[in-house]
């Protein structure tokens, strides 16, 4: 049941903050600011040094709150390339697993623990392979290679596929992606680069608010 609840919460949240940084402390600060701005799904990438420390710290802080409360957020892990990394992250507190590619053993591991897994795919063949393994959401990556029109093109032959573009999603095109029928979107450097450059993490909260406002508006219009 928890997996189904997490998938529903991910769909309702709509926007996943994909966070990369130079230290776990920096990523925790990024996540706190994004959550303050209203983004309720955080993906800590395994490219962050000591990433599991950040996942554990965030999970301890945000998982104890009620899912409907302002202090709750889903903490997941990204850039997972193998099942060993997926299990380590799950044990550290990750509630969902994201990968840039499709690794069958990683999917099987996540299914064993009833954890949502979102592997990257770029072709119809990869998406079908993911569906056959029991994947609930496919990460369209890199999304920057496509326009939002790719979503209905995919859903023509595969209406059952839940697609989440990551990479290339911005405030300028977020509404188009949502109206095209995506499950949700992943937001990367656009959320954090200005804040890091200026050393002002409050800018992440401001940008998160803008993303959530744009997302809610597009959902209401779609």
From TrEMBL:
Acetylation keyword on record: no
UniProt GO MF annotations: lyase activity
UniProt xrefs under Gene3D superfamilies: Aldolase class I (3.20.20.70)
Keyword vocabulary terms for this entry: Carbohydrate metabolism, Lyase
Pathway terms, separated by semicolons: Carbohydrate acid metabolism
InterPro entries hit by this protein: Aldlse_KDPG_KHG, Aldolase_TIM
Positions of transmembrane segments: none
Pfam families in alphabetical order: Aldolase (PF01081)
Family membership: Belongs to the KHG/KDPG aldolase family.
Subunit structure: Homotrimer.
Name of the molecule in the record: Ketohydroxyglutarate aldolase
Organism name: Paenibacillus darwinianus
């Amino acid at each position: 049941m928890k997996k189904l609840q997490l998938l529903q919460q991910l769909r309702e949240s709509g926007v996943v903050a994909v966070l990369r940084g130079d230290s776990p402390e920096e990523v925790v600060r990024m996540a706190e600011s994004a959550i303050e701005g209203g983004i309720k799904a955080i993906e800590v990438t395994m490219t962050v040094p000591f990433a599991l420390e950040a996942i554990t710290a965030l999970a301890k802080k945000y998982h104890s709150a009620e899912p409907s409360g302002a202090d709750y957020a889903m903490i997941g892990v990204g850039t997972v390339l193998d099942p060993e990394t997926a299990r380590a992250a799950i044990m550290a507190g990750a509630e969902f697993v994201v990968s840039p590619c499709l690794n069958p053993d990683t999917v099987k591991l996540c299914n064993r623990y009833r954890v949502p897994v979102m592997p990257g795919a770029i072709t119809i063949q990869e998406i079908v392979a993911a569906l056959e393994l029991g994947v609930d959401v496919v990460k369209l990556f890199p999304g920057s290679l496509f326009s939002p029109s790719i979503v209905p093109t995919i859903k023509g032959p595969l209406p059952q596929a839940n697609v989440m573009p990551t990479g290339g999603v911005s405030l300028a095109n977020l509404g188009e992606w949502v109206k095209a029928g995506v499950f949700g979107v992943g937001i990367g450097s656009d959320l954090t680069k200005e804040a890091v450059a200026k050393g002002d993490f409050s800018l992440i909260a401001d940008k998160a608010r803008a993303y959530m406002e744009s997302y809610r508006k597009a959902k209401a219009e779609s």
